[in-house]
Amino acid sequence: MDLKEIEKKLHELVPSECRMTKAEAEGLDIVIYLKDINAFYSNDQLIRKIAGTIRKRILVKSDPSALMPTEEALKIIKETIPVEAGVADVRFNPEFSEVNIEALKPGLVIGKGGMTLKTIIQKTKWAPVVLRTPTMPSSTIKGVRSTMLKEAVSRKKFLTQLGKKICSTPETKSDWVKVTALGGFYEVGRSCALVQTPNSNVLIDCGINPETFEPTKAYPYLNAMNLELDQIDAVVLTHAHMDHCGFIPYLYAYGYDGPVYCTTPTRDLAMLLQMDFISIANKNSQYTPPYGIKDIQKELSHMVTVDYGEVIDITPEIKLTFYNAGHILGSSMVHLHIGEGLHNLVFSGDIKYGFTKLFDQANTAFPRVETLFLDSTYGGRNDVQPNRYDADKRLVETAIEVCQRGGKVLIPTFAVGRSQEIMLVFEEYAQKNKDFNFPVYLDGMILEASAIHTAYPEYLRHNVQRRILSNDSPFESKIFEPVKRTARR
């Protein structure tokens, strides 16, 4: 159903007393703007009826002319939300008729059956967007959320253009699918693949090889696409490690202007790691980074976040679904349904089937798959991992033995993923052994990555999620001491 057909259907479905002013595609959503939103909400079944007919994600918002002045709206919002919710910030976004509400306990902002949100909408006419406040300070999350508000005008324009493109109808049906390996095949690093049909061009990841600065070995073979960058329809990002996301800002520096689809934690972690990459690269006089901060910021304003299990259209003929990959926070396997049953592809990205303290194992309950691209790191015949319990025990015992001899244990590891897993190993041991009295020093980057984990507990194992929600985050244990100043390193 193209946009004109959708608009026609909506005019038929939305009651005249709601006074619909416009309906437009904003990225993945069809947004209906009304002058009388209360009339719409008087019928509880109306939104379901519209969504069932249009078969798209529907958002209902007030026309900008109907919005309550922000000062009055803020007063009502504060009166409506219980103090126990721990509201940290309320910021209005007039371009989208939305109000962002950050709170430590989003559930109390939403209310039973969404009643608190409904009250806010009906009284103020603003559409609430509820965001979780991390239990630890995070400059990355603060920066990301501020940038999204600051870039609201340009982002609205981008999402409207994207929505129109997705809702368009191809002139002909695709009858073939082609995948081109651009990096990360038979090597570790610079992961990148191009999925093509006669009507669509989609990149899966676009990373760097962090072990070299030599361009022919560090970056994907984008010249092998035989495409201009502005011919790419979408980039799909599996997770935030630099060997998968590190080259995406380059695309924006040289002509790409389309979306990056990823989970919300992946978006935030990608910003953290890409900014760190630029910071380190700028200190190396022998290396010129392939992109700058402005390109990372442009990437951020073009990111479209998607939840696990949510089926979305990324081109008029390709549907995307993310599945938990169990690798790092927000990591995903990518399922692409192409055409009306033409072909189903899965790109695993980096996956983890075994036990971890942070995440549930990878979810592979795909409805249908014809072609699977599977990560093979540690997948060799003789790559047998040691028993996890024994490995954890040996790590802690070795560290304690060194400390008891007056030594210091250095554990160089990735700031995202492995660091948090090791933190939980030591924190669990300290919980069970009260005589553990050795401090565990954390680099500032690890602290920032851990803070991002506390903003998205729903992506973690249930026991870790429960502790964060109960104000007992394992990442904030007394055994951990941050090292932020260079002099202390």
Structural notes for this entry:
The chain has 17 helices and 19 strands. The chain has a 6-stranded mixed beta sheet with strand order 7-8-9-10-11-12. It has a 5-stranded mixed beta sheet with strand order 13-14-15-16-17, with no helix packed on it. The protein has a 3-stranded mixed beta sheet with strand order 1-2-3. It starts with a helix and ends in a 6-residue tail after the last strand. It folds into 4 domains: 3-65, GMP Synthetase, Chain A, domain 3 (2-Layer Sandwich), CATH 3.30.300; 67-133, K homology (KH) domain (GMP Synthetase, Chain A, domain 3); 177-373, Metallo-beta-lactamase, Chain A (4-Layer Sandwich); 388-488, Rossmann fold (3-Layer(aba) Sandwich). By secondary structure, it is of the alpha/beta class.
Q: Label the structural class.
A: alpha/beta
User: What's the alpha carbon Rg, rounded to whole Å?
Assistant: 24 Å
Portion in beta strands: 15-25%
Spans where pLDDT lies below 50 across 5 or more residues: none
Distance between the termini: 59 Å
Number of strands: 19
The chain-level mean pLDDT equals 94
* CATH fold group of the largest domain: Metallo-beta-lactamase, Chain A
Could you say which overall geometry the principal axes of the C-alpha atoms support? globular
Number of domains: 4
User: What proportion of the residues is helical, as a percent range?
Assistant: 25-40%
The CATH class of the largest domain, by name, is Alpha Beta
Report strand order across the widest sheet: 7-8-9-10-11-12
CATH level-4 homologous superfamily of the largest domain: Ribonuclease Z/Hydroxyacylglutathione hydrolase-like
